[in-house]
Amino acid sequence: MELFRQGLRHLMLLLLAISGAAMAQTVAPSGQEAGRAGGAQVRYEVVELLPGTIGSYPRINAAGQVAVSMVIGGRTKGFFYDGAALRQLGFPGGGAVYANGLNDAGQVAGTALNKAGVERAFVWSARGGMRDLAAGKDSGSSYGMAINGRGVVTGSFQGGTRPFRWSAAGGLQDLGSTPAPSGGRVLNDGGVIAGVSTIDDETTRVFAWTRERGLIDIDTLGSIESSPVAVGAGGEVAGNRLASWDDGGDRPFLWTQAGGMRDLGIGRGSTAWVNAMTPGLHIAGAIGYPDGRQRAMSWTRRGGMRELGALGGRTSVARAVNARGQIVGFAENGAGAMRAFVWSERNGMLDLNRLLRRTPPGLVLEQALAINDSGVIVASANTGLVLLKPSSL
Fold first, then answer.
1. Residue 193 in contact with residue 154, Cβ under 8 Å?
2. The whole model's pTM is what?
3. Residue 356's domain is classified under what CATH number?
4. Which of 16, 56, 308, 370 has the fewest CB within 10 Å, making it most exposed?
5. 8 Å CB contact between 217 and 207
6. Which UniProt keywords apply (predicted)?
7. Number of domains in the chain
């Protein structure tokens, strides 16, 4: 259970950042004006998906399908949007559902309560329905955290203490033991898995797993805490680390098998963190400053770390990035309100609220949370969760 709670850490931190930033009123130069010089802007059609608040961050695949958990009427429910209709996920007679991963085949991985009230790792598809990944091997809690393009799932079982790899052909594979309870978090299509070992209530260590080498402690920088966010196409692992208790905050890292763990720095700030990375190693996240300001950032091997600007306020945070270099997230405007943004090299940071066609009455986009390589965006609004489709599609 502890590993599962830690898997939701960045969701909680981001929501806290939003609520704190919404109270700020300081005005700074806006990126909206700068973006207009780049030519005609893409417009977006709005598809309203679900009411409620976010229970797990939405995932979107190449086809524009979405997996998400929403808190509706006090209950956490899992959903899959197939491009035309919504389907609700769950074990028969079960409870809360956390949809944590989605692949291009429309398979969803996550954690759900079964009818006995036990948390169980699952994979779901429209054709196969819900499948308990640890059935027959483990009667305790298990947690599904991510799924790759080949349908391989990683997570933890035996009460969240041991990492696993699951496939339809091979079933559940125990990845082995570390000196402490551990679980898989993320993986790539090549099957490289990254996860965390929980040393105690305050200390974690990031590991990688490959078929050739098994479990590897990859925190060669000796952090107090470290956790993975994504695995690149070549097996690289990006994530966040806390160097020491008095270090001031998280620092992003990139690990490679050849070079080990590399601290990516904090730019001009006092802290920085990763929220997403493409298979090609384009990283998106934020930089934090001692006075409470935050700035969305990106990092590439070629360009290093750069700030992406803001919409007139103190705060902006990048949440997701696609292979075309489009980055989405949330930013505070000059009035102190949070607004969803899209950023590109050509147009800079733009308020998505100003790019909508036929905006539903009263709708305000507050955060952009996911984007696929076609530029389709999942965002949260004052009405719930929405899908934004570029008008050219």
1. yes
2. 0.90
3. 2.130.10.150
4. 16
5. yes
6. Signal
7. 1
